[in-house]
Amino acid sequence: MRPLLEIIDLKVYYHQRGAVVRAIDGITIKVFSGEILGITGESGCGKTTLARTILRILPSNAEVISGKILFHGKNLLELPEEEMRKIRQKSISIILQGTHETLNPLMLSGIQVAEAIEYHLEKDTSEALEMTEKIFKDVELGRSHIITLPNELSTGMVQRVKIALALSTRPELVIADEPFVGLHTILQASLIDLLIRLKKKYDVTLLYFSHNLARMIEIADRITVMYGGKIVEIAPAKNIFKTPIHPYTKGLIGAIPLPRMIRKQKKYGLIWIPGNPPDPSNPPNGCRFHPRCPIAKEICRKTEPSPLLINETIVYCHFAKDLVDISPYDFWSKHLS
Questions:
Q1: pLDDT tens-digit map of 190-209
Q2: How far is the CA of 58 from the CAs of 13, 38, 253, in angstroms?
Q3: What is the secondary structure of 199-243 as a DSSP string?
Q4: d(C-alpha 286, C-alpha 305), whole Å
Q5: What residue ranges do the domains of the chain occupy?
C-alpha cells in the first residue's frame, strides 16, 4: 500500500551562533491513510522540527540539508511557495503547541475558522459561517463562542477552537504537535478523546507528536520513537508496550508509572535511563544512544546501525536480535544494579 506521506532520509539543521544544530539527522517514516502514527521521544529529539518541516514553516535559521517529503508522491520540499500555500490547511493542517499561537488575538474565534473555509473551500461567507457553526458544535462549543475573541475563552475552549480550525477544511492529514502540553491531566485526556473521535468522524489521518508515551500507546496505531534527531524504533503500539526492543524504548516503557497491581503482577518497578540526551551541535558518532547504553560496544561507537525488521518492528540497534525477549525491567535493572 502506497503511503499518504513518506519522509525519506530527511536532514534538517539549524545555524545558531556559529554552531550547526542537527535537529533531524537522516530519518525515514511512512504514514498510511487513515492511521494514527505517534512520534515520541525526549524534548529536543526533533519532533517539532519534523512537524514544521512537513509544512515548510521552519524559522529562518533552519536549513533542509537533504531528503524528501512525499505527499501523494509529490515532493513538498520542491514545490513553489504558491503551490505549498494551497496544501497548507486545505490538505495538511496543524495543531501547534502554544495555547494561543495558532489564533489571531484580534479576530473573533469563529471568524478565523470561517475565513479558512472561505479561502480554501471557496465558500461564500454565509455558507462558511454555517459550516463553522456545525464544527463548533462538533468540538462542543456553542454559537456564542463564534463571536468571542480567543483571549475571552478559557484554555480548554481555545484548544477546541484550534481543533475546529484544523478540521474545518476537511484535510487529509492533521499534524498534532504536542497540542495539549501544559494542561492539567483531566483536560488533556478530554481533549485527546475529542480529537480521536473527530478524527474518525472526519476520516483524516493523524500524525500525533508527544512525549507522553503512555497516552500515545492507547490511541496510536503505530509509534515511532526518536532519539537525538534519529529514529530508534518503529512498531505497532501494542509491540512498543509489550515487546519493546531498542534499549532506549525499553527505558521509556519502564519509566511509565503503571498501577501498583499491574506492576506487582509483572514483578517490576519504575526504572530510569542514566545520563542526558546528546548535544545536537556535537552528536556522538555511531549509534546516538551509545553513551547511555549499558551494552554498547566498539561497533556502536563507530558505526551507525541499519534498520532491522523483527516481526512488525523496525529497530535501529546492532544487537536487536539479542534483546527481543528481554523485558524493560530485566534489561535495565540488571545494568543499573
A1: 999 999 999 999 999 999 99
A2: 11, 21, 31
A3: HHHTT-EEEEE-S-HHHHHHH-SEEEEEETTEEEEEEEHHHHHHS
A4: 7
A5: 243-336
